[in-house]
Amino acid sequence: MKLVPLGDKIVLKQLEAEETTKSGIVLPGQAKEKPQEAEVIAVGPGGIIDGKEVKMQVKEGDKVIYSKYAGTEVELEGEEYIIVKQNDILAIVE
Amino acid sequence: MKLVPLGDKIVLKQLEAEETTKSGIVLPGQAKEKPQEAEVIAVGPGGIIDGKEVKMQVKEGDKVIYSKYAGTEVELEGEEYIIVKQNDILAIVE
Amino acid sequence: MKLVPLGDKIVLKQLEAEETTKSGIVLPGQAKEKPQEAEVIAVGPGGIIDGKEVKMQVKEGDKVIYSKYAGTEVELEGEEYIIVKQNDILAIVE
Amino acid sequence: MKLVPLGDKIVLKQLEAEETTKSGIVLPGQAKEKPQEAEVIAVGPGGIIDGKEVKMQVKEGDKVIYSKYAGTEVELEGEEYIIVKQNDILAIVE
Amino acid sequence: MKLVPLGDKIVLKQLEAEETTKSGIVLPGQAKEKPQEAEVIAVGPGGIIDGKEVKMQVKEGDKVIYSKYAGTEVELEGEEYIIVKQNDILAIVE
Amino acid sequence: MKLVPLGDKIVLKQLEAEETTKSGIVLPGQAKEKPQEAEVIAVGPGGIIDGKEVKMQVKEGDKVIYSKYAGTEVELEGEEYIIVKQNDILAIVE
Amino acid sequence: MKLVPLGDKIVLKQLEAEETTKSGIVLPGQAKEKPQEAEVIAVGPGGIIDGKEVKMQVKEGDKVIYSKYAGTEVELEGEEYIIVKQNDILAIVE
Fold this sequence. Notes:
The structure is a homoheptamer of 94-residue chains. Chain A has 94 residues and is mainly beta. Helices cover 7% and strands 49% of the residues of chain A.
């Protein structure tokens, strides 16, 4: 059982607090929009989204910084995921 | 008697609480936008919606995670349905 | 004397409470946006609305579920009507 | 002295309360947006409005139902008028 | 010293209260948006404004009814002017 | 050391109160949006801004009336500047 | 480990208070939108962003004035960065 995102949507899995500490990402407190590090689990096909061509620029396994503001949390088989639009991904951590 | 959605609209039937538990979807409390698992009952024809070409990407019988925020609940012959736009569907559960 | 809607506007006549009960539509209480069953009385010509081609997809006599949120109620010769945009019609009941 | 509307604007003259009663229009109380019956006094030329082609669909003398929400009231030589955009006209009463 | 408006902007000079009375314009009290009679002092060149072709439809010396809502008042050499966009002009008074 | 504006942005230097008085501009009190006279110090290159062609219509040395609402104040080497978009410039004072 | 911005996003590193003082930038207090001087650390590839061609106009090492309003702060390996869209960069300091 897996999540297959539509359009420009991307399924993320938030990195554990321990891992976050290892990677050195510290998130300053900001109530409205908390940037976070996550791993890309699944990527929508892109295509014409809202009348505009969208090419997907991240791939499964990428570590990314995303803006949590518009994301939606789901839990599938005991694992928590976040579904965001590609536009909510700010940068890839290489 | 059945619901025939217009445009990019989709008729969903929410999966029962029991079934939801079996599939392992747990919905974290979030007042404004509750993601939910549902089955696709009927799919609008797509086409030019608000001046933009929309291709329908889900089909009858799909299990989907949707964002309930803009959905509209109706009850027809004792069954409850939710009508959403395709854009409110986040992912297909396979 | 009749109402001739402009553009993508549609004149609806709400089905009576009794009839609503017969058709099995029950409307859950939701203050902001009450979906309702109605009969289509008159349909605007469509065409270029706000710079975008709109084709009308309902016809006189259709039973429809509409979102009352943006509708406007008028009463003509003792009969009450609701004028909505086609976009506010969610599904046809067949 | 007369009002010559620009673009997609239309000058209306509200029908008198007596006449409104005769035509059978009753306006349910709704603070924010009061639909009203009025006569079309002057029609703008249409054309490219905000980058979009607008064709005028009402003509002088039409009785119309309009949404008063965005209209502007002016009084010229002792007569009161309302200036609305064509988009605020819901239907013609024939 | 004079004001040369850019784009679709127009410099207006409000008609004096006396003159307003003579022309018969009475402005009903409406806190948010006060329609007013003014004379056109200078007209911007129009052209591509915000990606859309705008043709100027008023000329110097026109008496116009404008919606004061978005206008900006300036005073130059002891004279007060209002700068509005053409879209804020509702009608020409002929 | 100088400020080189990007896109449709323009660097302004507000005219001193004394000079403002000389030029006769008096600014009526309006909390939200204070029009002001300023000199153009540097002009962005224009070009495609937000998908739309923007041609710059002011030049270094122009005296302009701008709407301060969206401007950003910076101070460089003891001099204060305001950076605005061309769209926030209402008129040139000639 | 480094941040690779997507689309029109740019990674900035705020200049230290000491350096800010040296360059002479003083930031007047403005609660909602604090302009700031920063160095460009990494620049997204640009391309079609939200259906519109965006060309990147800053490069690594540029000193820029940005509008902090929509920026997102992250900390990677003990260093703090700000990720902004190119549209939030007002001017380059040369």
